Fold each of these.
Amino acid sequence: MKQLIIYYSWSGNTAALAHRLQQLMSADVFEIKVPAGTFSTDMYATSDIAKQQLTTGQLPALNEPLPNFGEYDEILVGGPVWSGSPATPVLALLELLKHGNVSAQLAPFYTHAGSAVGYEADFEKAAGSLTVLPGLSIAGSGTNDDTEIQKWVN
Ligand code: FMN
């Protein structure tokens, strides 16, 4: 089974989780980036920009080139929780996957600061008819205990 770990990380927590996942499986890894200036370096300003993107339906552009998603059987999609939901670059990625030549199952992994209850429902909704597997939710940059992560990978 060919697997891709693809993630967006604004402040590094999801990136750290993606790299821990990579150590536990043999998967390609890709970091999603958005054009410079898309967000702010300030969390609150970034939150406002993201809300504006959602209101207008103008999700952020993702830097190219992106992987050839059609090659994969499973795509692990990582990102931070923003206002209880997937960060807008993750939503932009799901739009591409949904309309691309993708047959892979999706598995969300995400990091948050304490509240992430609606994340997976919103992720599934954004994924349309693609199959979404149960996700992995980690607070902050995680702990040194990898039990939960290992259980999810297996
Ligand atoms: N954490 C939560 O638990 N709930 C939230 O609703 C939430 N909204 C956020 C909105 C923005 C714009 C940002 C920047 C952070 C928010 N956070 C929230 C915190 C992040 O989800 C958390 O710090 C996450 O681990 C950051 O991942 P990253 O370092 O990969 O960007």
Amino acid sequence: PSPIIHIDPARSISRVDPRIYSGFTEHMGRCIYGGIFEPENPNSLADPNTGFRKDVLSVLKELNVPIFRYPGGNFVSSYRWQDGIGPKHLRPRRPELAWLTEESNQFGTDEFMQFCKEMNAEPYICLNMGTGTLEDALAWLEYCNSSANTYYANLRRENGHPEPYKVKYWSLGNEVWGPWQVGQMESQDYAKKAFQWAKALKLLDPSIQLISCGETGYSDWDRVTLKKLVPVVDYHSIHIYTVSEGNHAVNVMGPAAAEKALEISKSLIDLAKIESGLDKQVTICFDEWNVWDPVRAPGEKGAEEHYDLSDALAVASWLNVFVRKADIVKIACIAQSVNVISPIITSPKGLFKQTTFYPLKLFATLMQGTSLNVHVGSPSHTGKTVPDWVEKLEKNAGGDEKLTKYIDVSAVLNDSKDEVRLAIVNRHATEGYTIPIRFGPACDVSGGTVQVYEVWSADLKDNNGWDGERVQIVEKQLPWSGEYSVKQHSFQLLVFKVELQ
Ligand code: AHR
């Protein structure tokens, strides 16, 4: 079919939760050290009081990040949080088993809380269910949140932090199913253990929100753990990275797997609720997502991906999925926030914004409000959407015509109900399209213009780097004629002033 877009603001899906634009800072590669924290920076880029990179925090602020997840990731599964508090010269250096490095512990819980405060973001702590015990987890929660006259609350005070940090989000381990994980478990064993941890953690602080460790959202691990944990958790976490191996179609169609995964995990949550007889809200915390090829950018080497325009379009498609699935995904954390598979790359001399920074910024600032049901007619991609070695659901998602349209769209109505905003990715490598955009009967486009924010470059392989930014946002205001022409391989966010009757 020829491309066409129909939007009716009366047909809403759900409120877009601003927390879908959250971040993740792991002790991995140069995310923390040399990323957000570099007290010895030779070019005076660090704040002399906190050691935070002023330039990095300032650029991160452009992304309005509502939550940062910390301290891992795989790192957390052998992390002793107690090593990272108190006088810095007394903090022990430890072997680090996730990425086979050494951890200096110069950045720990109190520094992370200070970082979140400066970023005006909420902290989210992932607990160590590898080498860590329930006692360690309870101690961490007490240190962060307790106002009682008890040991760890007093230790926080002694360390100069009289007020509790009120950390709301706590997750029960990271990728515990993975063979690479210190403390890997079988699903039943994890579910039993996490259930006991959840009870104890909520006894100590009933105000916290707990996140169970899921897998992809469509695995047997997800089914088994949800069945047991739905009564005690508030969110179920899933992780998916899309891999392209240099194939543009695979790169941009990859997020179809995430959309399928969200549909399936929503049903698994429903099933677990029915089986437990509970009517409570459990939603998805997609706390690791991104474009990542671990062969191109191995974790042990710091996973520094150098993204191009094709990757930026893949990230825009990822974000379209989260907006369309606003009913089930309430938190999503891009993995990660600085240097490690990140939209920002630093050196001791400064930083540059990767291509992926720009769609993320546009979504975080403009795709807020209520997600709208959009009908899109578009030619579909028929080839593969994942590398040959990927099995299971990702392959099936590729066969789903609905999810592999070249024209990939999400839409919102802003909170003051006077703007419809449309995020359109043209995923076709070589074809541009002129797309009629039709609004529902009770919606008039007013003002006669459309505000456009476009991310495009002539070559899909164009990227940003120390020699300049070839991929950025181009802003323009155009007369509105009822149709819009998208260039080949482009992303555009269109803002229409509307009057609803
Ligand atoms: O984000 C990088 C790593 O990917 C995380 O540490 C881990 O949870 C995932 O496998």
